[in-house]
Amino acid sequence: MIRFNCDYNEGAHPRILERLVETNFEQTAGYGEDPHCDRAKELILKDCGNPNADVYFLVGGTQTNLTVIASALRPHQGALSAESGHINVHESGAIEASGHKVLSLPSADGKLTAAQVEAAWRAHFEDETQIHMVQPKMVYISHPTEIGTLYTKDELTALSEVCRKRNLYLFMDGARMGYGLTAPGNDLTLEDIARLTDVFYIGGTKVGALFGEALVIVNDQLKVDFPYMIKQRGGLLAKGRLLGIQFETLFEDGLYYELGAHANKAATIIREACEQKGYKMFCASPTNQQFPILPNEMLKAFQDKYSYATWAKVDDDHTAVRFCTSWCTKLEDAEQLAKDILAF
Amino acid sequence: MIRFNCDYNEGAHPRILERLVETNFEQTAGYGEDPHCDRAKELILKDCGNPNADVYFLVGGTQTNLTVIASALRPHQGALSAESGHINVHESGAIEASGHKVLSLPSADGKLTAAQVEAAWRAHFEDETQIHMVQPKMVYISHPTEIGTLYTKDELTALSEVCRKRNLYLFMDGARMGYGLTAPGNDLTLEDIARLTDVFYIGGTKVGALFGEALVIVNDQLKVDFPYMIKQRGGLLAKGRLLGIQFETLFEDGLYYELGAHANKAATIIREACEQKGYKMFCASPTNQQFPILPNEMLKAFQDKYSYATWAKVDDDHTAVRFCTSWCTKLEDAEQLAKDILAF
Amino acid sequence: MIRFNCDYNEGAHPRILERLVETNFEQTAGYGEDPHCDRAKELILKDCGNPNADVYFLVGGTQTNLTVIASALRPHQGALSAESGHINVHESGAIEASGHKVLSLPSADGKLTAAQVEAAWRAHFEDETQIHMVQPKMVYISHPTEIGTLYTKDELTALSEVCRKRNLYLFMDGARMGYGLTAPGNDLTLEDIARLTDVFYIGGTKVGALFGEALVIVNDQLKVDFPYMIKQRGGLLAKGRLLGIQFETLFEDGLYYELGAHANKAATIIREACEQKGYKMFCASPTNQQFPILPNEMLKAFQDKYSYATWAKVDDDHTAVRFCTSWCTKLEDAEQLAKDILAF
Amino acid sequence: MIRFNCDYNEGAHPRILERLVETNFEQTAGYGEDPHCDRAKELILKDCGNPNADVYFLVGGTQTNLTVIASALRPHQGALSAESGHINVHESGAIEASGHKVLSLPSADGKLTAAQVEAAWRAHFEDETQIHMVQPKMVYISHPTEIGTLYTKDELTALSEVCRKRNLYLFMDGARMGYGLTAPGNDLTLEDIARLTDVFYIGGTKVGALFGEALVIVNDQLKVDFPYMIKQRGGLLAKGRLLGIQFETLFEDGLYYELGAHANKAATIIREACEQKGYKMFCASPTNQQFPILPNEMLKAFQDKYSYATWAKVDDDHTAVRFCTSWCTKLEDAEQLAKDILAF
């Protein structure tokens, strides 16, 4: 069986493991106060073009989302999110458990628009009974989104403008950032993102690390006392250097981007085969997740050879599925799948 | 500089790293649903002598404490803890952030007694105004405690009895369990602990793993829907197998206990030197943490050679300090320190 | 100006004030442990036909909702609610502040159907990734709903059945219960409601009292330690008798139902005038809230004479508004409004 | 039986009931946006000598405490309180339920000193591991305290200075404020309190009202969005005017102070009888609560005639009890008790 079901089936890029072995007996301070974390922060800030941002390393995405949101908001404030946003659907109520409502907005492509945000702001602040409702204070977006779509620089600029005008924090979840930054057609850089958002993170778990997310806090207001929050939410890794070593390896010579590009290349092979056969895509993703709408019979034929996620029933004979490539996908596996699709 | 300041200065036991390298390209399911986690659970349950307990692997201690307590208690209930308990002092309010009061009780040696628990229960349930106060529902203890002391089997049995009589959950934090189980004079086994408590964990972070705590849930009531809680609190590791592989390695042939015994041996070397010179101990720890009361002049002389934690000022000329050994301490380093103490 | 903007513009029915004056110097125990509360509970339980339910008196609706939900649910559980439900829109995130997600479902008429609840249950429990999502555990409904509509006995029976089958709590918010129970066409009694739900409340604030909601807990599981919850959430009135006296007065000889019927009568006068003129209703409410769609010109003409709430813009020339009658509305005021509508 | 067990045994001062009756059919806006609330605010601000403070009316003390603290603090921050403080003992964990630790400090007389606060601040901010601990950000005090003692102007000034120096909010719980302001020897005025604290409240429930606390927010930082918090915590009374009318009555011509002085006078009668007989007081309270240490035999003799609260067992033959007078205590009842004490 060849697994295309998700992007965290394997361990880490071998260079990361090598570095863990090499550094294993170094004695360092705990909790991220070590030279590896320091160097990883520097490397990341260099790519962000902002030496004044704060960088923290956390273990996972849900942990990062809940820690950022619980830290940023007062109790009566909520975060606007696409209905399909990870915080709205797949975090078991982590945000609500920290006391905050996720204010969901409809979205066909997993993205929010500046116009939606402006309308949501008005709907609240122009209503006389506003104190009876949750106050929108943050906009949560993902890049890529849950369905692999990307913001353009224009779209993100417009979102950023409305957020600054309306005094809303713009928070970008970048669990799959590496696949977004290197996707065909993407026009956003880390520098743009650091300029346009207030806080964002660069996902390691799904892009070559054993685990880990690098959180970048740009807005000074959001920096205050943040380390307390990491500890309080159970996210402060005793041997913080493990995170430093991984991000150091990913960012010292562009490995992070290489891995992203590799997965996108494998995904393109699969997408092109589908398109060649005339299969429609459930959504237009240029990144490592591909959502073709396939005949149920083909899926039946594939079921022992490939693993994938079932996404949505489209009609009686067709199902949208997700094929997920990763930093670790072998190109020959993608080619095999493409061949089988074409041959069906 | 030789570091005795804490027990998480280095990476992991080399066999753990070897296993991570060996298994790196295996494709497995995520979130702890993989064969390594399965095998690690089996090994642990065998040592616990209880095939029916549930085992979950979490990344860190604070995360484990807050997840267990938030899951076990209703909103009006709190956890009794020694004043010096980790949840009461060093978790940045993690328990309160989940809505629960830590009901602290005085303790000179870091332990709670059955009599204290009974008295606390009575103070609540025999008071007419009980509904105006937080209801005690859990007893939180550590083994070893924050200051390295241990419960005897008699003490733990008495605690267990009062908890069962009074319908209180008994929760044991075992962040340093390996050092406790192998300490000279310890008469508790994992089997005893699994029999006498409702829930406990076996710490990996401080005993040879890169990170990780193995939570064992014995009481059926506490098992219900626990995986949701791990996810909600941000503790569900995507590549859960990383935890499985580590605990598999620690428990397949007794490595965990070897590492514990090693650290205790190193600690004994240090303690004996102190005792030989007539220095008193701040508390009587048979485990990897030693708290001698030393002359300030000696500490001054040592400050560039050894790192340690300052614990308490005892008088104008003496300070209690903590020397911490670990699975990774070289015996010759402990012997060097002993020699320097004796020679001072 | 004649106020039809809401149903809490005045104080209380005069008999309530008389009773407060008469009893003012009685010395009683606090916190609801007084003879007036005892008697009010008895009277209510008699109407509910269930001597074994627990009754508690709270001051307001949001307080009651948040206290019930925070008490009933474990941290990973949420409450299903119509999108327009009070807890989803107009409680400033009170439910989320207690840690729980409101799982909103679409509803054109403010009601939930048994089929929706069953589908929501399946969507969760038949999904393999269920532990990543909030678990539905309660169904929150209002009777009357936010837009004045009512459940039929058949509908409530179906909801009750699915809740029992799926182990969900059924919670009915009865902030306007008096107007529902006495509405033309209503076929539900307090006895039915006590039989079909797990917990519900009978609103006083909007139906003749100065303030107060009578919470009836039918399900034994929900009774455990509930008084702690009231205290913890700030809802335990020191002079609890004030609530007892009010509900005693409302329930000792049917005053509660009289007041409900009176308001509905006034509302009918207004509705009939609208219908006679051919104005459509935004929703079909048989209770004290009426939502006619009126020409903007009429509204302009009325604006200094009547107060009302603007509900929704329907088209460029028409707006849905809410006229709210109450226990205190003078029939001649309703008739005046009807006359003006007819004359326009 | 004559009740001295608490200060909320009866309804309200008759002038308050009269005003409720007179105003009953006025139609006003809800939620505290009515002319009575406006006037009551003005009257209170005049007494506070600060026209710029914000005033809100809440129903009860626990509700007020939890709303203020939840609004003021970020998640990692806690409130310093005397061990005996109401928020630490008698609010069923309301503060923790909002996510915050109560940082308790020992106190023999129910008060905190400036030196204690400074020491607590240093203990946190001078500790390298501060981010592992709850950050003190507020100082919670009561005036009078739980045991009837009072702060002097010097003591409050010193507390205020350390709070401003260390950037801590000073919050005064004034549930029994009326009894404090009018006590013999008290040298604090509302004007002083408004100058020296950041936020405080003036209790109505225990001082002549049916219910209600007037919260005064002096510090601009604490004013932001406070109404949302009242709503979210279930404290926004629909018919807010009921609170306005009560405080209007209490503050328009000094009734509040009269009622306070009356209770203190009654308490003095009781205290003087005890002192004349040589009975010691458990604590030196000049306010409406008196805590004499009395022979158990006397208490046995009194048990059918007087109600009181048992406070503490002092020795085998003596018990400290609490006699509580109030705005409603008849002087002849206090004199009768005094006579019986003297005659025993």
Describe this structure in words.
With about 350 residues, the first copy, chain A, is of the alpha/beta class. Chain A has two domains: about 1-5 and about 260-344, Aspartate Aminotransferase, domain 1 (Alpha-Beta Complex); about 15-255, Type I PLP-dependent aspartate aminotransferase-like (Major domain) (Aspartate Aminotransferase, domain 2, 3-Layer(aba) Sandwich). The first copy, chain A, is about 40% helix and about 20% strand. Chain A has 15 helices and 13 strands. A seven-stranded mixed beta sheet of chain A has the order 2-8-7-6-5-3-4, with helices on both faces. In chain A, strands 9, 10, 12 and 13 form a four-stranded antiparallel beta sheet that branches. In chain A, α1 crosses α12 (about 240-250), α2 packs across α12 and α6 (about 115-125) packs parallel to α7 (about 155-165). The longest helix of chain A has 22 residues, at about 255-275. The first copy, chain A, is globular and about 60 Å long. The model of chain A has no long low-confidence stretch (mean pLDDT about 95).
Quick recap:
By secondary structure, chain A is of the alpha/beta class.
Unreliable segments of chain A (pLDDT under 50, ≥5 consecutive)? none
The CATH superfamily of the largest domain in chain A is known as Type I PLP-dependent aspartate aminotransferase-like (Major domain)
Give the termini distance of chain A in whole angstroms: 18 Å
CATH architecture of the largest domain in chain A: 3-Layer(aba) Sandwich
Largest interface: C-D, 50 and 51 residues
What is the subunit organization of this protein? homotetramer
Number of helices of chain A: 15
The first-level CATH class name of the largest domain in chain A: Alpha Beta
| Helix content percent band of chain A | 40-55%
Strand content of chain A: 15-25%
Sheet having the most strands of chain A: 7 strands, mixed
- The neighbouring-strand order within the major sheet of chain A is 2-8-7-6-5-3-4
- CATH fold category name of the largest domain in chain A: Aspartate Aminotransferase, domain 2
**SSE pattern of chain A, N- to C-terminal:** EHHEHEHHEHEHEHHEEHHHHEEHEEEH
The outline of chain A comes out as: globular
Structural class of chain A: alpha/beta
> What is the total tally of β strands of chain A?
13
The number of domains of chain A is 2
Q: What Rg of chain A do the Cα atoms give? A: 20 Å
Average residue-wise pLDDT of chain A: 97
